[in-house]
Amino acid sequence: MGLRILVSGKGGSGKTTVAALTTLIFARRGYNVLVLDTDSVPNTAQSLGVPPEIASKIVPLVKNEELVAEKTGARPGEGWGLLFSLTPDVSDIVDRYGIRVRENVRLVVVGSIDASKEGCLCPAIALAKAFLLHVLLKKRDIVIVDSEAGAEVFGRGLAEKFDVNLCVAEPTFKSLAIARKLVELGKQLGIRHSVVVINKVEDPLRAVELFGKTIGSEVPYHIVRYSPRIPQLENLGMGLDRLEENDVAYRDVEKLVDYLEKLV
Ligand SMILES: Nc1ncnc2c1ncn2[C@@H]1O[C@H](COP(=O)(O)OP(=O)(O)O)[C@@H](O)[C@H]1O
Ligand SMILES: [Mg+2]
Questions:
Q1: What is the pTM of this model?
Q2: Which ligand does the CA of 234 lie closest to?
Q3: Rounded to the nearest whole angstrom, what is the distance from the C-alpha of residue 78 to the centroid of ligand 2?
Q4: Side-chain half-sphere of 102: how many Cα atoms within 13 Å?
Q5: φ, ψ (nearest 5 deg) of residue 210
């Protein structure tokens, strides 16, 4: 039922760009998409085309003290680990705090998941966890988590709730080496599907060759080409909802969505 996708990768590799384009394309195909932004610098809203005056006012859930207190019984500084309810009731959070990006797209800015606190009971993880465990998916529902941290921060038991570990990398040795680790971690934690997105590609042949050397032939990959239009839109303060459907990167992400759609 539905699909839960974790998008991870090195900072700046294009996680938010790929997550936002994937979201918009799924939405245009009639799916309902819930996007969770767990980045320390949350900017998925901008990429999805939420107007700056609204995006700038978003308070991440974990910074919303009242909500955290209500859902977890703890206030900041009171010792999260002790007072935490492990499964805060989140059934109403999407309705109360979700931003309606368009008819069938909701965004919840969860807030930063601290990668150094592996397996911790900090509020962001508890909330993200509750979401993943309790958000019921119907056939045409997609959850996309834009996360700077890899699957390991979610810990065992939660990581395996993801159906797809989508690792975004630039076509460089270092970035692909990080992606390889993310793929391995995802596998160890029980995520069924891993796919590497090689993003900002200018020379596809070279990118494939480098992929072969760093990650090898057993992991599926998709190439998303470099599109000058993407930084251009960003500099104009516009979202990727404005990216033309014949843009190279748009067409490449469409192919990625074709692939993901088969997993739903
Ligand atoms: N396919 C692409 N073509 C051109 N620029 C891109 C592409 N993907 C991402 N970018 C640019 O790279 C930068 C980092 O992308 P972003 O999605 O914010 O990365 P992350 O979320 O991983 O930190 C942004 O300025 C974005 O506009
Ligand atoms: Mg990002």
A1: 0.91
A2: 1
A3: 30
A4: 16
A5: -65, -40
Q: Where are the domains of the chain?
A: 3-261
CATH 3.40.50.300 fits 3-261, yes or no: yes
Q: Find the largest Cα–Cα distance for the chain.
A: 54
Q: Is 17 in the pocket of ligand 1 (CB under 6 A)?
A: yes
Q: What is the pLDDT along the chain (264 residues), one digit of tens a residue?
A: 789 999 999 999 999 999 999 999 999 999 999 999 988 888 999 999 999 999 989 988 777 777 777 776 666 555 444 344 545 666 677 888 889 999 999 999 988 766 555 555 566 666 666 766 667 678 889 999 999 878 877 777 778 889 999 999 999 999 999 999 999 999 999 999 999 999 999 999 999 999 999 999 899 999 999 999 999 999 999 999 999 999 999 999 999 999 999 999
At 55, which helix (H) or strand (E)?
helix 52-55
Evaluate whether 259 touches 195 at the Cβ level (below 8 Å): yes
Ligand 1 mean position, distance from CA 15 (Å): 7
